[in-house]
Design a protein that fits this description.
- The chain has helices at 2-17, 23-44, 50-76, 81-106, 120-127, 131-144; strands at residues 150-151, 157-158.
- The chain is an all-alpha fold.
- Helix 1 runs antiparallel to helix 2 (23-44) and helix 2 (23-44) runs antiparallel to helix 3.
- The radius of gyration is 32 Å and the shape is elongated.
- Keywords: Membrane, Transmembrane, Transmembrane helix.
- The chain crosses the membrane at residues 24-42, 54-75, 81-102.
Length: 161
């Protein structure tokens, strides 16, 4: 993403030039640049998986929330750090809950698992749960392999020399 690199370079240049002079103006420009980048990512949907695009937007909104709250507390000169931390975490929790609700409602999981073999019969056979199952399994194995090879009473192939 070339736009991301350009935004990062612009922010670094502004950090070195504008922030020492006026930090409030730097914060406002930083919010505007990051908001425009977030809007660009929401419109372009840079990833092929909808859930990833959703969580990219959620993370951008969490960063924007942090930027706005930090800038408000910086400009107002308010030094209530406990209230500021509480407000930060409350916003993050609300944003994450909203992201989870949107994901469960609009974006079902597209990942699937192939069905695996049912190996419970093999365990039941090997642990001797039922003698009838063993004998049935051995009988089926003998009939299947009758023409090609010989099987002894334990189900083991017998080699003739």
């Amino acid at each position: 993403m070339m736009l991301k690199s350009l935004c990062q370079i612009g922010i670094i240049v502004l950090n070195k030039t504008l922030k020492p002079v006026n930090s409030a103006l730097f914060g406002l420009i930083y919010i505007i640049v990051f908001l425009s980048f977030t809007i660009f990512c929401i419109k372009r949907k840079p990833y092929n998986y909808h859930r990833f695009n959703l969580w990219l937007s959620v993370s951008h909104f969490a960063v924007l929330w942090s930027l706005v709250v930090s800038s408000i507390f910086l400009v107002s000169g308010n030094r209530f750090t406990l209230f500021w931390i509480f407000l930060e975490y409350l916003g993050w929790i609300i944003i994450i809950i909203a992201g989870v609700l949107i994901q469960t409602k609009f974006y079902p999981s597209l990942l699937y698992r192939e069905k695996t073999l049912d190996i419970s019969l093999f365990f039941r056979f090997s642990l001797g749960r039922n003698a009838m199952e063993k004998s049935l399994f051995l009988e089926m194995t003998r009939k299947r392999n009758q023409n090609s090879q010989k099987i002894d009473k334990f189900g083991v192939e017998v080699c003739n020399k």
